[in-house]
Structures are given as structure tokens and as C-alpha cells.
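Minutes, project check-in
Item: structure for the 195-residue chain
Input as provided by the requester:
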Amino acid sequence: MKTKNRITVGWIKKAVVVLAMPAFFMPLAKSQDVALKSNLLYDATTTLNLGLEIGLAPKWTLELPANYNPWEFSRNRKLKHWAIQPEARYWFCERFMGHFMGLHAHVAGYNIGGLKMFGLNENRYEGYLYGAGISYGYQWILSKRWSIEATVGVGYAYLDHAKYPCEKCAEKIGDFTKHYFGPTKAGISLIYIIK
């Protein structure tokens, strides 16, 4: 178990470095080249999240979102996780406006269980996932600095986790892997254009 905790901390440190790197390039940014965003769907699940989107070319942007949920709820219910999901986006009109298609990768660590709404009430799962997918979205301009965006995506994820009964301090049932194909991204994001 200690090895998994070290890996989790290592991945979080790498994610922070990756997400902080664009800040060094912000002084070079031109009009509407950088945006901060928060996914309201993640907010609804008590997941802390922040995204940075950077203009790369007239019709291309790079989105760098990060999510973190450290909370444990009553009756040993938890949706603990961290995740990063960088995405390259192609905009059909111009960046930060209208329709776009995206290609994303994802990596996450999770410790979830005791949640009836997700069918995870019988067991707890602790592990990692890696994968990629494609997405489609649309962004509406609300004002000079504010926008709202809706996006959905599908793809693949490889899950590697340990399975436990939901009771606290229970012995591990076993180690499992799973190949997942299906929805990999969903968002309704509030966006603030920095530059």
C-alpha cells in the first residue's frame, strides 16, 4: 500500500508541474489566448477542479484540467480521486468560440466505494487508470471575459485496482484490471478569459 501512496504523490507533483508550466508563457500571450475554467459538473460532486486553456494557433488550443477530491463522507462513502486530462482542441470557427473537436488523454488515481448511485455500494476500489479519447463541444460567449462551454467525450481507459469490501479495515479481495470503452469526459464549464 505504501508504494501506491508514493506513486499517487509522485503523479500529483507531476500534474502540478505540467499545469504550472503554461504560466511561464502567459506574458507572451496575445488577445484571447489564455482562459481559466471550472467544470460545474465536478463542482456538483465536491471535486475541486481548475483548468487552463492556451491558444496555440488560430484554430488550435491546449486544455490542461486537473481534478482533486480528498473527501470521505459518512458510512465510509468516498469518491476520492485525482485526475489530469489534457486535450488538444480544433475549433471550427475561431478558438474560444463555437464548435470544437478534441483529442484527450487521461490519468487518474482513485479510492471510491459505498456509492449507490454509481453501483459501487458493495465494494471499494483503489487504483489507477490511463487512457485516451475524443470529444466534441460548444462554447457560448457571455461577455468580453466570460463564456460557458458544454463538452462530451468517449474513449478507452485501462483500470488497475485493488478491490475491498466496503467495511473499514477489511482485507483485500484481490487485484484486478479492466478495459473500459465508453464515456470519458463530460463538462459544463464556466470560463474566464485572461488575455
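Outcome recorded: The radius of gyration is 18 Å.
No further action items on this chain.
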